[in-house]
Amino acid sequence: MKCGVICFLKKTTVGAICFWMGEWQVRAVRVWLTDGRNETFGKPSGSNQEYVLKPVECFTKLTLWENGAGTRLGAIRFKTSEDGEFFAKMSSWILKTEYPMDVGSGYCLGVVGRGGSDIDSMGVKFLSAVQSTVLTNINYPIINQLIPNVTVEELKSITYQNDSSSKQLQTIET
């Protein structure tokens, strides 16, 4: 990755991601952002797997693995809000150390890491979990401008007034 970073532009999230896998490592990663930019880290060769996110889709779970020797990225697995699942791993070595990531709000802003021909290490940047929201410039129509969508029907009406301190009983028949 050459200490590569792709992310962090306003109104931009990851739209697709592709991994090229080797026998004992992730060889390369390509990330497409929703603004059209893309960047490739490592040297793509061999088989690859790609995942394209839907516009409303976000991550619900993400796990990374090292390659067992501690020298390269070995695998990535994630699940999304649209029931999507992705799992790309090295082809020969057994996965060992698993690193579950905090996905925050689930909106992926990009990736960070380092490498040359292969991916030595990788991290995924997420927007923090949303703590609160504020609605601004909300306009409600004035109540007298609304036309009710109901039919008003008066069955019977009578008004009583008690000018004394004693209780009164009134009956209305319909």
Number of E strands: 11
Mean pLDDT: 86
N/C terminus separation: 83 Å
The CATH first-level class comes to Mainly Beta
Query: Widest sheet: strand order?
Result: 4-3-2-5
Please give the share of residues in helix.
under 10%
Report the total helices.
0
Query: What is Rg?
Result: 30 Å
Q: What class, by secondary structure content?
A: mainly beta
**What's the helix-strand series?**
EEEEEEEEEEE
> What is the number of domains?
1
The CATH H-level homologous superfamily: Jacalin-like lectin domain
- Name of the CATH architecture: Aligned Prism
Which ranges are low-confidence, i.e. pLDDT below 50, for 5 or more consecutive residues?
A: none
Please, could you describe this protein's structure?
This protein has one domain: Jacalin-like lectin domain (Vitelline Membrane Outer Layer Protein I, subunit A, Aligned Prism), CATH 2.100.10.30. It contains no helices and 11 strands. The strands form 3 sheets. It has a 4-stranded antiparallel sheet with strand order 4-3-2-5, with no helix packed on it. It has a 4-stranded antiparallel sheet with strand order 8-7-6-9, with no helix packed on it. Strands 1-10-11 form a 3-stranded antiparallel sheet, with no helix packed on it. The chain starts with a strand and ends in a 48-residue tail after the last strand. The model has no long low-confidence stretch (mean pLDDT 86).
